[in-house]
Specification:
Blueprint (H helix, E strand, L loop, with lengths): L20 E4 L4 E6 L9 E10 L5 E5 L2 H11 L10 E11 L2 E10 L2
Antiparallel strand pairs: 1-3, 1-5, 2-3, 3-4, 5-6
């Protein structure tokens, strides 16, 4: 299993467009990330990271949010080993995130 915490090539906000199709390149894993400005360990959170293959063939890391997990789990199952090679469609929904209403990326299963 690859160590996803070592990857510096992450998907950034706005990089994926509405309707874009991506493919799961691995089963992902839970990692602890320090989100504090000073990187002093004061804001460590456990997140699920997974590798996505974009349409151009590049592979990048995504912190898979709970909304995406809830959307994908009923179709692809709870075991993310079964997600490898499967596709997802990028959508954006307005929701409260970090105290503001903003567009949040949600992945949906492609059937």
């Amino acid at each position: 299993m690859p160590n996803l915490s070592m990857s510096g090539d992450r998907i950034v906000k706005g990089e994926l467009q509405e309707g874009e199709i991506v493919k799961f390149a691995n089963a992902g894993d839970y990692v602890e990330i320090d989100f504090s400005q000073a990187q002093d360990g004061s804001k460590v959170q456990r997140v699920f990271q997974i590798l996505l293959e974009k349409a151009d063939g590049s592979i990048k890391t995504l912190n898979l949010n709970k909304s995406s997990q809830k959307s994908l789990k009923p179709v692809y199952g709870a075991n993310t080993d079964d997600w490898v090679g499967k596709q997802a469609r990028v959508t954006y929904v307005k929701m409260s995130s970090f105290g503001k209403i903003q567009d949040v990326m949600v992945l949906e299963a492609v059937q």
